[in-house]
């Protein structure tokens, strides 16, 4: 990858780099950041510049799903033309964009909007491989500075390890950017948690207790829509829906957290 990177005049991002959902440093308008669990790159915009991603590490710029043979060796590409970055796929499996939009190899490339876009490709045994993309905004340094400012509200919420795991399981459909997500039920979440951590004796009551505690704490912290009194009856999944949305919008939970569920 280093030789390919040198040809692009880009910068490598290590596998330990934080999620691009948390922002990127200020830079030239149209700068592209691409990140997978194996690492990624940052490159500037240039007409005709193409970034390749897929399973075959020696032949791509960003490696995705290198241990999953359902992922194509050359899964797709990001190309800069007409002052925009365009995403296309050449793999057998489609790419899934936010809103559950599927992009197939027969489709025309799609333009990427400035800001953060998570891309998913489903591999073997239901594994979800994430490719994070961030395109630098076009309206000057002000917006980029806001993206990079660590003290900019909304702030992230403190969660214990058990709370974080339970909420990732409960809200996994949101983190996968499904079109019409719903939280798992208490019982579904407990079953999934017992599969992940069989020694911790998860029950639906334990999951409910942890999540209700987080809702109460965030409600006292000023987050609306987390109590029965606010939303009215019937409540259904509304309280947990509002909770997961707040955790995602504050970047307390981000798509790479799916790694805890053996999605990579």
* Total number of strands: 12
User: Mind describing the biggest β-sheet?
Assistant: 5 strands, antiparallel
Question: What is the CATH class name of the largest domain?
Answer: Mainly Beta
User: How many domain regions?
Assistant: 2
Please give the radius of gyration in angstroms: 20 Å
Written account of the structure:
With 264 residues, the chain is of the alpha+beta class. The chain has 2 domains: 2-148, Tumour Suppressor Smad4 (Sandwich); 161-261, no CATH class. The protein is 28% helix and 21% strand. It has helices at 2-8, 141-148, 161-170, 172-175, 186-196, 204-220, 228-231, 238-249, and strands at residues 11-13, 32-36, 39-43, 50-54, 62-63, 76-81, 84-89, 95-97, 101-103, 110-111, 115-122, 128-135. Strands 1-3-2-12-11 form a 5-stranded antiparallel beta sheet, with helices on one face. A 5-stranded mixed beta sheet has the order 5-4-6-7-10, with no helix packed on it.
Which helices and strands, and how do they pair?
Blueprint: H1 2-8, E1 11-13, E2 32-36, E3 39-43, E4 50-54, E5 62-63, E6 76-81, E7 84-89, E8 95-97, E9 101-103, E10 110-111, E11 115-122, E12 128-135, H2 141-148, H3 161-170, H4 172-175, H5 186-196, H6 204-220, H7 228-231, H8 238-249
Parallel strand pairs: 4-5
Antiparallel strand pairs: 1-3, 2-3, 2-12, 4-6, 6-7, 7-10, 8-9, 11-12
């Amino acid at each position: 990858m280093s030789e390919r990177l040198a040809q692009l005049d880009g910068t490598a991002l290590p596998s330990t780099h934080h999620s691009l959902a948390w922002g990127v440093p200020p830079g030239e308008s149209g700068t592209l950041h691409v990140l997978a669990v194996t690492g990624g790159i940052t490159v500037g915009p240039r007409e005709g510049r193409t970034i390749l991603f897929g399973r075959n590490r020696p032949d791509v710029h960003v490696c995705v799903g290198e241990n999953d043979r359902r992922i194509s060796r050359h899964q797709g590409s990001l190309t800069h033309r007409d002052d925009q970055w365009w995403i296309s796929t050449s793999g057998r499996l489609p790419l899934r964009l936010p809103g559950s939009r599927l992009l197939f190899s027969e489709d025309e490339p799609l333009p990427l909007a400035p800001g953060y876009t998570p891309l998913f490709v489903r591999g073997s045994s239901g594994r979800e491989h994430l490719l994070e993309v961030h395109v630098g905004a076009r309206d000057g340094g002000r917006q980029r500075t806001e993206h990079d400012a660590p003290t900019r509200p909304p702030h992230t919420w403190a969660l214990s390890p058990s709370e974080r795991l339970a909420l990732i399981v409960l809200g996994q459909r949101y983190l996968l950017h499904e079109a019409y997500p719903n939280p798992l039920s208490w019982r579904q979440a407990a079953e999934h948690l017992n599969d992940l951590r069989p020694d911790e004796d998860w029950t639906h009551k334990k999951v409910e207790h942890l999540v209700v505690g987080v809702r109460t704490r965030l409600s006292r912290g000023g987050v609306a829509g987390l109590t029965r009194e606010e939303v009215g009856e019937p409540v259904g999944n509304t309280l947990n829906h509002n909770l997961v949305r707040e955790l995602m919008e504050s970047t307390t939970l981000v798509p790479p957290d799916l790694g805890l569920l053996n999605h990579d």
